[in-house]
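> tool_call: predict_assembly(chains=two)
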Amino acid sequence: MRSSHAFRSFAFAYGTAFAVLYVVALKLDLALFTVYPSLGVVLLGTHHSRDVAGPSMAFLAPAMYWYGWTATAALGALMFGFIAALLPERWTRRIWPGWLWVVPALAMIACVYLTLPWFRL
Amino acid sequence: MVAVALLGAITHQTLATWAPAQARPGSFFGRFRAVASAPYANAIVVLYAVSALLGGIVYLYFRIDIGPDLERAGHWQILGLFDIKEHFISIGLALLPAYWVCWRQPRAGELARTRATLTSILAFIVWWGFLIGHVVNNIRGFGA
C-alpha cells in the first residue's frame, strides 16, 4: 500500500513538474546537451553554431536541442518526483489532482506561445 | 504501424471515457461504452513510449535530410508546427506514469475527471503528432 501511494505521488509530481520545467528549459534555452546529428557529436550544455562560426554553419551542422531540453526537464522532474514520493500520504492527498492536467495544458499553451516567432518569419 | 495502433487505441479510449453513461444500447456511443477501456491503458503506455523512441531516432535523420531543405525553402510555419509537436510529445511522455496510475484504479472516484482529461490531452497530442508528421512528410511534394 505504501509503495502504491509512493508511486502515485511520484507519478503525479513528475508529470506536473516536467511540464513546468520543460517550458523553463525551452524559454531559457537550457539544454542538458546539444546534438549535432550530421557530425555525430553530442556536446554537454547548450551550444549555438553561430557562437563559434558564421551563420551558414547552422545549415551545414544543424544543432538539435529538443533532446537536451527534454533531458533537463526530466532530470529536474525526477527530483520533484522522488521528494513527493517521500511525503506522507496525508499531505499529498490534500493536493487537488486536477493540477495534473491543468499544469500540462498550460505548459502546452506556453510552448505554442514560445514557438510563435516561427510563424512571423 | 505502432503510431496507427496508438492512434486507434487512444481514440477509442477517449471516446469511451466521454461517451454519455446513459447512451442507448446498440447506438454508436452505447457500443463504445460497452467495451472496457481500462485494459487499453497498458497498451497505450507501451505504444506511446515506443512511438516516441522511434520518433526520436527518425528525428535525427529529419534534421539532417529534410529540416535544412524546409529552411531554405522558407517553410517556417511548418517547422514551427513541427517544433510544437516535439514539445507536446515530451510533455505527453512525462504524463504516462500518472496516466497509468489513474487507469489502474478500477473505480477512479476523485480521479475520474483527471483521468478523462488526461486521456483527452494524450489523445490530442497523438493526433497532433500524427497529422503534423503527415503534413511534413508530404510537404516536399508541394509545388512539384
